[in-house]
Amino acid sequence: MQSGDDAIASQxxxxxxxxxxxxxxxxxxxxxxxxxxAVSATAFYMSTIPDQYRSDAQMVLALTETRFSESTGQLETxxxxxxxVETELARLRSRDFAEQVADRLGLFDDPSFVRRAPxxxxxxxxxxxxxxxxxxxxxxxxxxxxxxxxAISIEGRSTSPVLAAALPNTVIAVYIANERDARVNxxxxxxxxxxxxxxxxxxxxxxxxxxxxxxxxEDNLDDEQFVTRLRAEVERRKAQLRIGIExxxxxxEILALQEQxxxxxxxxxxxxxxxxxxxxxxxxxELLRTRYxxxxxxxxxxxxxxxxxxxxxxxxxxxxxPVEPYxxxxxxxxxxxxxxxxxxxxxxxxxxxxxxxxVRSENQIIRMTGLSNLGYIARQRRSKMFAGENKAxxxxxxxxxxxxxxxxxxxxxxxxxxxxSKVILITSGLPNEGKSFVSSVLATSAAVDxxxxxxxxxxxxxxxxxxxxxxDMDEVQLSEIYSDSVTLQHALTTETKGSLDLITAASxxxxxxxxASNKLKQLKETLLDQYDIIxxxxxxxxVMDEVYRNDILADAVLLVARWGKTPQHALQxxxxxxxxxxxxxxxxxxxxxxxxxxxxxxxxGYYGTYDDY
Length: 613
Prior knowledge:
It is a single chain. The chain is α/β, with parallel strands linked by helices. It is about 55% helix and about 15% strand. It has helices at about 1-25, 30-50, 80-90, 95-105, 125-140, 160-220, 225-245, 250-305, 330-355, 360-370, 385-400, 405-420, 435-450, 465-470, 515-530, 570-580; strands spanning about 55-60, 65-70, 75-80, 140-145, 150-160, 315, 375-380, 425-430, 450-455, 480, 490, 500-505, 535, 555-560, 585-595, 600, 605-610. Strands 7, 8, 9, 10, 11, 12, 13, 14 and 15 form a 9-stranded mixed beta sheet that branches. Strands 4-5-1-6 form a 4-stranded antiparallel beta sheet. Helix 2 packs antiparallel against helix 9 (about 330-355), helix 4 (about 95-105) crosses helix 5 (about 125-140) and helix 6 (about 160-220) runs antiparallel to helix 8. Mean pLDDT is about 85; it is low at about 385-390 and about 600-613.
């Protein structure tokens, strides 16, 4: 059971593949023209695009820089961080920087880079021209950074290989020159700031020293023995007070000694405060002196660096003149255009198939009508009206193994052997679907295979079946179907195993009485005694009602649909109407099939194609 399911699944997959292949074949011309047009247009357009060259160079930014800090008054080392690097990258991409690069390369005066507008001599025109050059320069190089590295890559692109190499080298050269100028300017600014600070500190130091000298002079602080004498005086006063107390001197003398001691101690305390103030002032002067000397040292250091300044940013690789262009990839783009056109063509094919409501496959027939398709009739070449049908009949008589003969033989075998139908009514839903041609082919095929066949042409409006065998209508003998006798004409002039006779109705069948039905039934019995098979060609089922008056005459009905022409709804309506009228509709015949655009799969999994013959 599982193997059977696998076989069915494999069959479905194969059918899906074939359906896709058929879809492509039916729309092959559209897809081919679309691909050819897209490839040709792309190739022409790509031929107008000049070759593009590119080259790249690399530089490494300086990690640190020494500058004078206004806030601290000291030389400080500044280290590049992420935001600083991003700032430098933005500077490299700025318009001002691009103008410097253009100026260094002389692109403002190069007409091959950007051509000036004729008669553009005003200042505004010059600004417009410079802006155009700067924009093109910005578009001609790119700046990139790998991760958190300080290495910056510059890629130049141009239609000129020389300019493609010159751009990144010039970008780096301009950046290094700008950076050096900026470092020199910052260094000179730092030197000026240090000189100004040296002057300020010198004045502050001089003023502090002058104030210190005046302080010492005013308070006699240069006498180093003065404090010693005050301490000795305090000790002497203390000794006198102690002795006076021991000797019980009068109270007024004791008070006098105490006042003298207090006075001496106050003098000593005042002197001590003055000396402490002196020490503080001396420390302030020393601090100013140190700051002054440090500033002078920093100034000397910066002044010596002016002649020894090195480039902070260095170029580690130079751009070389490219030999081969990197773009455009004409072959690749042309191939991609062709592939894109194929995809678009496939989409268009799907849309066309989705919008196509005509009958093209047996699956559609089964889905719309529930009927099986009994055969396929290949498209016949037509040079003029009915000439194609006559030629097809001649080929059928000459070759019994042709695709047309095999198709007709299969349909007749199905009807006679398996369905036991000897009177087959052929009709279609709409005009111009080839029912008369199919009737003629089936009748001729039966005669070729040795059957005595009769073709009854009831289509009094077109008489297509009759004209297939007797083009001159003056030679046609007409018969009244409801009369007691009908006129038989030989349809074939070529000798065959069997025979083919023709009855051409003179007027449409219109009687609905029981007598008319009995006449048709009697005619059928009479003709079946003489013929092995009878083919009846009737008007279209959806246009004329004559077909529905011949139900007594027919054993079965074959419904003809024209491949790619018959609307699905028309086929569905015709089949439904015939079945509801009591006809035994055996199936359909798909006529006028284009063998180059269609293949079919039978229920047994057989794949066939007219191209194999």
